[in-house]
Design goal:
single chain, 109 residues, 5 strands, 30% strand
Length: 109
């Protein structure tokens, strides 16, 4: 099944607000393993000269893409509507098996 990859960024000085919002998000959106497997547990975080960036990766369960995407947007909006400068986007990426399958092939073993 596909990957949902969420990228987020915010100004460094907003990190305390992001952390506070993360605690709220965990309560509002408890883990739901039926949606898929988190391949990057929580988020990977990187501090840059332009601010802080994060990435999360979920391998979505069959038939759960729309639900997982909708949940991701709701979670992203929780942050972006409350924290100035917080931006995010969610991308759907094919697994290697799906990519090969789309051209009628199987990935090498």
């Amino acid at each position: 099944m596909p990957y949902l990859i969420t990228f987020a960024k915010w100004p460094s000085d907003k990190t305390p607000e992001v952390v506070k919002k993360a605690i709220e998000a965990i309560k509002k959106f408890p883990s739901d393993e039926s949606l898929g497997e988190d391949l990057v547990s929580g988020n990977a975080i990187k501090a840059t000269e332009e601010g802080v960036r994060s990435i999360s990766v979920k391998n979505v369960s069959k038939g759960k893409l729309e639900e997982a995407y909708t949940r991701g947007v709701a979670m992203g909006n929780l942050y972006s509507l409350a924290i100035e400068g917080f931006e995010y986007n969610i991308e759907t990426w094919a697994t290697v098996e799906e990519a090969y399958s789309s051209i009628g092939q199987k990935p090498p073993e």
